[in-house]
Each structure stands twice: as structure tokens, then as C-alpha cells.
Write a structure and sequence with these properties.
233 residues; alpha/beta; six-stranded mixed β-sheet; 4 helices; globular
Length: 233
């Protein structure tokens, strides 16, 4: 099974340009035969806090209709990040588009300091993805800083852990250590997608990567610039 992680450079607040970028990477992954593609945290809007409310999406949002269509056309699971409004609360979320045309939303469970001013954390929206004979759990950025998150994925019997992040260059070494440790400790494949350029006035560290269940780094992109990481598990 081939998995893909897109390292993108979203334009701040330019939803349509960012969606066009998503379409391009989905098509590129489909040409290679990928069964799943994951994008970084809030990949559709770019990382935002105070400006997130007017950029927020809702479930079954028509602006995301083409991503739904691409998931069906290419029989691929697409995981794309955005601020999400549900039941009058705003979350940092990942939309999951399935090959059968359905969708689900995962919400960030552990927030960075300062994010709580704008966003809610929630354990309620925590779907798993099932592909072939494997189960996938999702994480968004600061989720990986809490060891309980990966432990819960293991307890849920997930064999693949997918992290959509926005980590700075200084934060990447810690992310690599954490994700390698989770892969080894819980015998999971770990796939991570990060930005390849700045967002919210901050530099990103890129280096989207994959670790095998022994905790070994099997593939990684550069520290800057966009790209598509493809791994066969």
C-alpha cells in the first residue's frame, strides 16, 4: 500500500489557491497509485489563530466538493487540514474524504499555548481510517507532544499514525525524536506532513518524513520547499 505526504506552502488566507495546490498534489499522488495522501495542519487556509473564524469550514462544506470528488475518482483517502466550525465551536481539524464519497472530521486534541484563545480542544471527534487490513489514527501538531495521544492510537489497535503538523526549524528535531520513539514503542508506521515554507509569520521546518515500525527513518523531504513523499508500507 502506497501512502503520500504533501509538503505544501500555503498562501495565507487564499483558500482557492491553496485548494488548487491540493488538487495538484492529489493528482500527482494518484498517478503513482497512492491509497492515501495527508496534508499539513490547516493546509487549506494556512496556519491561523486570530484570523481563523472567517476562514473556517463546516462539515459537507461545498468549497471542499472537489476534494470529495477526487477521493472518489482516484479511490484515495484524502486528509486535508482547516479550521472547522461545529456546534458553534471552532476547532483545528482534519477533513477526511473517503473513496465512497463520505467524509469525517478529526479535531486537534491538545492545543499549543495561545491556541485556546481561538480554538477548542476535543476528544469527541476522533475517527480512525481503515484501509486494506490496516487501521490509521490521526494527529495534528501539538497532539504529538503528548505521549498519551500515541498511546491511545496504539490502544485503538492502529498500525499507522499520521501527523499533520506545522513545526518550526527548531521544533523539527524534537518532532523527529518523538515520532521515531512512538513508531518503535508501538510498532507503528508513522507518516508526517509539515509545511515547506512560512505561515503566520513563522518559518516552517519542512522535512516531512516516514518511520517504520522499528523507529527507523525511511524517507524524508528537504527542510524547505514543496514536495511529495511517497512510502510503500
Amino acid at each position: 500500500m502506497l501512502l503520500a505526504a504533501a509538503q505544501t506552502q500555503p498562501i495565507r488566507g487564499d483558500i482557492q489557491s491553496n485548494l488548487n495546490d491540493h488538487y495538484r498534489w492529489v493528482e500527482a499522488a494518484a498517478e503513482k497509485g497512492a491509497s492515501l495522501i495527508v496534508f499539513p495542519e490547516m493546509s487549506v487556509s494556512g496556519y491561523e489563530r486570530e484570523d481563523a473564524p472567517p476562514l473556517a469550514f463546516e462539515k459537507n462544506d461545498q468549497r471542499l466538493a472537489h476534494l470529495r470528488q477526487l477521493a472518489t475518482r482516484h479511490q484515495m483517502v484524502i486528509v486535508a487540514g482547516a479550521p472547522v466550525k461545529m456546534e458553534d465551536n471552532l476547532f483545528i481539524g482534519s477533513f477526511i474524504f473517503y473513496p465512497d464519497g463520505s467524509e469525517a472530521v478529526y479535531t486537534k486534541q491538545f492545543l499549543h499555548t495561545g491556541e485556546e484563545i481561538t480554538f477548542q480542544a476535543s476528544l469527541e471527534y476522533n475517527p480512525v481510517i481503515r484501509l486494506e487490513n490496516q487501521q490509521f489514527s490521526l494527529a495534528i501538531c501539538a497532539d504529538i507532544n503528548n505521549a498519551l495521544h500515541a498511546e491511545n492510537a496504539h490502544r485503538a489497535s492502529s498500525s499507522v499514525y499520521i501527523a499533520s503538523i506545522f513545526f518550526s526549524p527548531n521544533g523539527i528535531p524534537e518532532a523527529y525524536t518523538l515520532l521515531s520513539n512512538y513508531a518503535r514503542k508501538y510498532q507503528m508506521t508513522v507518516l508526517m506532513a509539515n509545511y515547506g515554507g512560512p505561515s503566520w509569520g513563522m518559518d516552517s521546518g519542512g522535512r516531512s518524513a516516514c518511520w517504520n515500525p522499528n523507529g527507523e527513518l525511511t524517507a524524508a523531504l528537504d527542510a524547505s520547499g514543496e514536495g511529495l513523499l511517497l512510502v510503500d508500507i
